Amino acid sequence: MKKSIAIILALAIIAGALTGCSTPAPAQADTAELDKVKSDLNAANEKIADLEAQLAEASIFYASKFPKWFEEEGTWRTVQNENLANNQPSGFIKDASGRPTDEDIETMLHFASLAVTSGGKSDWFLVAVTDPEEQNIIIGDKYGKATSEGTVTVLVFGERLLRPDVRTDDKNVYQPDRGYYDAGIVTGYLNVAAISLGYGTHMFMTPALPGVNGFNNGERGLDCDKYLEGTQYYMASTHEFHSTENMKFVCAVVIGTPDETVENGVTNKEFPDNWIIWQE
User: Fold this and answer.
1) Which of 36, 171, 202, 227 has its CA 20 to 30 A from that of 9?
2) Taking Cα atoms as reference points, which of 165, 155, 221 lies closest to residue 190?
3) Is the pLDDT of residue 170 over 60?
4) How many structural domains compose the chain?
């Protein structure tokens, strides 16, 4: 958008300059002056053609450019929490102006629903909490202040993480660790959706809710019952609805608008290329 505006302004400036150049040359103007006017007009026309081409390109979405934009934008890094004791301000805009709109929240959640899952089980569930006080109850301030009126906190749950005797998926075909895979990839999709809409994120696996998170021999872990009360999830592979009473908390994702006035508003971590292209 900023690029498009800059190009349009440049076109307007050149158009104004051309208006000044379009006045007929006086009869007494010599050949050199006329040649200069023609040269200026040709140069302006070339610049206009170049700017129009840039404007056309800026108005088109090229999906292939997303990975480069994703890295250059920088919001893919974790937005830092506020820790005033360490003179560290929040990386999120804290007032309501930074809060994701209801439409954007729905877009992010829907995009997450497009994630692939192991066996097509779709045994995950997301709960978006918008109330600032409730978000603070969930996340707490152990790791610094993360939530505010400018954030939304999404709780991510997985069903296949519990003991076989309390699981609801058909015949417990898949091992529990695939539940972490499903919840993880859904979280990844949610994160990308947030970034693509101009927001930043901070993820928590150990928030302030009662209980201990982790595998815990297949136990429920953190107490999140009130956020799931009365809900169901749809098992895509069997076309059936199941209660979310066996859902296990995996992580919470705080989403908000990065505060561009805050220096070092995102964490300065390394992201190494730990990968190879294997060939025998």
Assistant:
1) 36
2) 155
3) no
4) 2
18 lies in the same domain as 84: no
Does residue 39 sit within a domain? yes
Same domain, 138 and 205: yes
Q: What is the per-residue burial (b if ≥16 Cβ within 10 Å, else e) of 147-171?
A: bbbbbbbbbbbbbbbbeeeebbbee
Range of the domain at 43: 2-58
pLDDT tens-digit series, residues 20-29:
555 554 555 5
Give which of 203, 215, 218, 217 is closest to 251, Cα–Cα.
Answer: 203
Residues 43 and 157 in one domain: no
Global pTM value? 0.77
Range list of H helices, 114-173: 132-139
Separation between Cα atoms, residue 185 and residue 248, nearest integer Å: 16
- Check whether residue 9 and residue 48 sit in a common domain: yes
Q: Which residue has the tokens 């696996």?
A: 205
* 242 contacts: CB under 8 Å, gap ≥ 6: 159, 168, 169, 232, 233, 234, 235
Residue 217 lies in a domain: yes
Q: DSSP string spanning 25-50?
A: PPTT--HHHHHHHHHHHHHHHHHHHH
Asked if 158 contacts 250 with a C-beta cutoff of 8 angstroms, the reply is yes
Dihedral, CA of residue 132, residue 134, residue 139 and residue 143, to nearest 10: 50
d(CA 127, CA 118): 21
- Listed in sequence order, the DSSP H helices in 59-139 are 66-73, 102-113, 132-139
